[in-house]
Amino acid sequence: MENDVIEIDVQKELVSAHGRMTLTIKVKLLGGELVVLFGESGAGKTTLLRMISGLTNPDRGILKVGNSVWFDSDAGINKPPQERNIGFVFQDYALFPNMSVFNNVAYGQTQGDKCYVNELLQKFGLEELSARKPDKLSGGQRQRVALARALARKPDFLLLDEPLSALDGDIRTSLQNEILKAHGINNATTLLVSHDLTEVFRLAHKVLQIKNGTITGMGKPDQLFLNNQISGKVQITGSIVKIQKQDAFYLLTVVTGMNQILKVTAFQNDIEKLSEGDRVMVFSKAFSPLILKM
């Protein structure tokens, strides 16, 4: 799987918050990569994961992993999810409430290898929790159980749909380490949906930037999100929460991913394309803070 080329060329008609759109994804990935799907809600990121997993069918196209065709609308090929060797971690973790931690992890297996289940529990620090039910676990513990369950079948693909979105602070940072650990256990090709640029820069080998159902950018995080012409040493990302008109300038309030609040001055030509809610980069140049829409 590590050296396989993954070919995705699919289309799917969707209804988003902004109306009808056609999700059109054409890309080739290398096996073993950790790829982050980045974009606004409703861009089609989760639907792409579901099409790869077989939980949602494309309207047309082809999905090929190495020499194995998983979906081909013209040839009438559509492998069911159980034949695609996928590990999927949903945003709400989707653990079975009536099962213990051990049985949740073991459920992901096809061979019934209890030794490997115990190995995963040990690697994710879940041994002492193996008899507990999900309602007795913290959010971070449930996330680790979901990762261990997804890995239990030794998948070729590990699909993660915003698994850290409900967490924050030190827990989120710690569980980013768990995702890196999960990716490294069997070097599965990992696709992670995220809105968090800190996560993107920390985890991604490659980023697919998706907007309105199409790929608008692909590459390493610094290639996509950092302007090479920026010479400042300080670069902080965040969201504009308030734009206030002053006498001869505007005062922008920006909240960063670490919940820091920044006040940045801007002039009329700076804010013409900026609105409250926009994601921006604040950077320093010649000791003056500047702002750039992302």
From TrEMBL:
Pfam families reported for this sequence: ABC_tran
Record key words, sorted: ATP-binding, Nucleotide-binding, Transport
Annotated SUPFAM superfamilies: P-loop containing nucleoside triphosphate hydrolases
Claim: ATP-binding is one of the keywords in the record: yes
Organism superkingdom: Bacteria
Keyword Nucleotide-binding: yes
A molecular function (GO) term: ATP binding
UniProt domain ABC transporter: residue ranges: 5-237
Protein name (record): Molybdenum transport ATP-binding protein ModC
Organism whose genome encodes this protein: Geofilum rubicundum JCM 15548
Lineage, top ranks: Bacteria, Pseudomonadati, Bacteroidota, Bacteroidia, Marinilabiliales
